Amino acid sequence: MAEELCRLSLSEVSSLLARRRVSPVELTEAYLHRIAARDGDLNAYITVDEAGALAQAREAEARLARGEGGPLTGAPLALKDLLATHGLRTTCASRILENFVPPYDATVCARLRREGAVFLGKVNMDEFAMGSSTEHSAFGPTRNPWNRECIPGGSSGGSAAAVAADLCAAALGSDTGGSIRQPASHCGVVGLKPTYGRVSRFGLVAYASSLDQIGPLTKTVRDAALLLNAIAGHDPRDSTSLLAPAPDYLAALGRDLAGLKVGVPREYFGEGVDPDVEAAVKAALNTLAGLGADLVEVSLPHTAYAVAVYYVVAMAEASSNLARYDGVKYGFRGPAGNLREMYAQTRTRGFGEEVRRRIMLGTYTLSAGYYDAYYRKASQVRTLIRRDFEAAFQRCAVLAAPVAPTPAFRLEEKLDDPLTMYLSDIFTISVNLAGIPGISVPCGFSAAGLPIGLQILGPPLGEPQIFTVAHAFEQATDHHRRRPEF
Ligand code: GLN
């Protein structure tokens, strides 16, 4: 019974809770039990907050008993460990924040708390969200529930693995260059990166501020809409937060695709794309056509520059954002006899290798004399990438493409080769550079039985049409129903 409860989608859980067929405490206990029994094999959680979760569950129970509460009251969720949680340690998977306990909640956490959601704990990630495999974590790698020899994707690998393995009803992650969509694709779950500014970044530990967005990782498209409903909307505490009111995203589900134009970007197919991925995505395009959508070929001619532009912009912003970890204000402080030495010791011992690499490269590209050649040039090409999408969306409502060029790779396969690792983001990073929304929805499996995702992109604030297409596709297929034997 308890195991069965954990298998349910967020929407199913929500409906059982509302009808008082299951109590929040019973549900939370079922998840805590499953985490204690099974997470040793995956390492999805960095911190499990048993006492906090049960206290939230009891509160939710009281609310539901009074006939109050909303769709998320009593729903057990996992949070990527870069979202500040009041009183609960937030490590960013880094030694430097190992014992950091925030005195406040990120806006998304505060909103979910207000809704009565239950936080089971904080989940694993690449340190400071820098990576594509969740191997760059000071707390060890997370494993893929479909094949434990493989990575779950990254950087929100803990979120994706926890959802896929039924260790939470749904999770939040963050996406700077693909970190929600790519792990969602590799773990066979749904992951949405909203439009830049749609969800408040207040209390999200910053990686690259012009690219970061928080979003849901869930078992179904409906669940993603449900969770986005709770977290989207203006926040005066984030100056990049959009003023436009957030619609009811659930209203976008169940619409017809007849005559809807779906663009297929030429540059996202062909060389470098694994044949299983290409076949699954092409079959998905046929399914969309069968549902009445009109497929149109489009071109995003500046795609070839996306990886280079992204890694200049992201590293520059990261080097600036991470300057605050100096041993004075937060967490870890290296042993030293004087101030200079303290900075050096703190940052050398506190940060992992990938984070140090990025700080050095970012500092270099921002330094006097190089700024024009790198950061300014990258920003100019970024505008061209954004215009490619603007032109494409003149002709179609959404774009459909692969999420990642290959299914999940093996642990350690790319760990010593940062460039190859960076190339696994090739189909996701342009979306962040352009600030547009994108979703990954399960669309098939490789010959080795690993999940493959279909990416659906929309124009700014195009989440409703993304949900329409993703939901219609999901309802017409059953890839999302297949579960890992975990
Ligand atoms: N893999 C990309 C990077 O390492 C994207 C990470 C992310 O989206 N947070 O920067």
Q: What attributes characterize this protein structure?
A:
11 strands; Amidase signature (AS) enzymes; eleven-stranded mixed beta sheet; 486 residues
Write the layout of secondary structure elements.
Elements: H1 2-7, H2 10-18, H3 24-38, E1 45-48, H4 50-65, E2 76-80, H5 107-115, E3 118-123, H6 157-164, E4 170-175, H7 181-187, E5 190-193, E6 213-218, H8 221-231, E7 261-265, H9 275-290, E8 294-298, H10 306-321, H11 339-350, H12 353-366, H13 372-395, E9 398-402, H14 418-423, H15 429-434, E10 438-445, E11 451-457, H16 463-476
Parallel strand pairs: 2-3, 2-4, 7-8, 7-9
Antiparallel strand pairs: 1-3, 4-6, 5-6, 5-10, 9-11, 10-11
Helix pairs in contact: 3-4, 6-7, 10-12, 10-13
The site of glutamine has 13 residues, from loops.
The main sheet comes to: 11 strands, mixed
Q: How many structurally independent domains?
A: 3
**Basic shape:** globular
Q: CATH superfamily of the largest domain, please?
A: Amidase signature (AS) domain
Give the percentage of residues in beta strands.
5-15%
State the secondary-structure class: alpha/beta
> In DSSP terms, counting alpha (H) and pi (I) runs of 4 or more, how many helices?
16
- Which small molecules are bound? glutamine
Helices and strands, in order, run as HHHEHEHEHEHEEHEHEHHHHEHHEEH
Strand ordering within the main sheet? 1-3-2-4-6-5-10-11-9-7-8
Helicity level, as a percent range?
25-40%
Under CATH, the topology of the largest domain is which? Answer: Amidase signature (AS) enzymes
The name of the CATH architecture of the largest domain is Alpha-Beta Complex
Number of strands: 11
Supply Rg.
Answer: 21 Å
Low-confidence stretches: none
Please identify the top-level CATH class of the largest domain.
Alpha Beta
Mean pLDDT: 97
For the termini, the CA-CA separation is: 17 Å
